[in-house]
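Pilot study result, target chain (320 residues):
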Amino acid sequence: MTRFATDSALDLAVDTAITPEPNTSSTPAPHKPAILACIDGSSVTESVCDYAAWYARELKLPISLLHVIDVPKSYRHDLSGSIGMDSRNTLLQQLTLLDEQSARVANQHGEALLQDAKAHILINLPQANVYRYLRRSKLLAAIQHFIDDSKMIILGRRGRDHQGDHMTIGSQIESVVRAVDCPILICSDGFITPDSYMIAFDGSETAKKAVQKVCDNKIAKNLTGHIVMVDNKNSVHESALYKAQKQLSDAGFEVTAHLISSEKYGEGDVVSALTAFRNQHNISMFVIGAYGHAKWRRFFVGSTTTKLLTKTTAPVMLLR
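Predicted structure:
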């Protein structure tokens, strides 16, 4: 098992740059879509790499490993006041040197993390084309730079700041999902080769779009599918459920429709019912149409997407 680089607290940098590093230094960046795997050195990094390798093998695509050095707010303080000019100049010089040293440490740590991640992938998938990218920016900005060349994005459910908290999702996940139209897989610790999936379906336009995107997914044809609706026992919603099932079946998918009650499967709410159903049937991953409501509405009606990500440790495929 590959030992990944230890996180450093000195993740500081001052500019924006990208450093590509494929299997060989002479190999150009991929010209076809790639699996974009975002790693941060937390406990989920290995899982992110494993899911990236699985998807890359199934889709015969290269892998782009991305590590982002988050640019922090300036640590420099107001040095005006009673101290003299010479003292201020000395302190500024010391802070400048500290910034430079911190940036070098962050770069070295990022390169080591990318090297370890690449080595881990190549152990299980020796034929993979793996490209390494180190970028100094915010996560969303970095992902947007690569989005046109990405078939799928894989993120860890928890960032390194919350790697011991099993009820916390990465703080930047929602902003990324809302900003990009690419499928995003959110994973947690521990890779298990997927053999099934369940679509959380509520009859909304977002859910119908998710079904259409599953129809366009080559990998899903090799998996056992379930499409699940909770507490919508009326003719309109039930009709939409079975129409979605037929759409998938006509596209060549093996899928079963389920209309379940939250009182039977959960604790009286939709998310608990979905997670209980998944656990009972040992389903590998969730598929959900993500953030169907406008962001401001979340404060009033909540977000099933966020609640599901918080409730489960299973992989969740988010489709916009």
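One observation from the pilot: Strands lie at 34-38, 63-69, 130-136, 150-156, 184-187, 196-200, 224-230, 255-260, 285-289, 316-319. A full batch analysis is planned for the follow-on phase.
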